[in-house]
Every structure is written in structure tokens, then in C-alpha cells.
Specification:
The protein is built from two helices and no strands. The chain is mainly alpha-helical. The protein has one domain (8-56). It is elongated.
Length: 61
């Protein structure tokens, strides 16, 4: 999936791809070290919110 830079669709595709990758990582962490999951989840949510905010206000070239 290739995101188109500088477009809303591109930002959405990039955000979706990031979400999928982070979710896969969280699943692996849950299997191997579940005690780390709450901290990882909170960090992931913060990261995704920051990325979405940046994408919404920036023209990524």
C-alpha cells in the first residue's frame, strides 16, 4: 500500500498502515511479555494521536 504524499487519502493510508504494524507488535508483546502491554498500549495511542495530528496539519512531501 503506497500512500500519496500531501493528500488526505495518503495520510489515512499511512495512518492505517502504522496502526496495523503497531497492532501486530502489541499482539507479539502480549504473547511474550504481557505485563508490558498496558504501558505499550498507552504509548501507542499517544503516538498514533500525535501522528494523526501532524498528518492533519502538514503537507508531507
Amino acid at each position: 500500500m503506497e500512500a500519496t504524499p500531501g493528500t488526505t487519502k495518503g495520510h489515512q493510508e499511512s495512518h492505517r498502515a502504522t496502526t496495523i504494524i503497531m497492532n501486530r507488535l502489541l499482539i507479539q508483546i502480549n504473547k511474550s511479555q504481557p505485563h508490558l502491554l498496558p504501558q505499550c498500549y498507552a504509548t501507542t495511542q499517544s503516538c498514533l494521536k500525535a501522528a494523526a495530528s501532524y498528518a492533519a496539519t502538514s503537507h508531507i512531501e
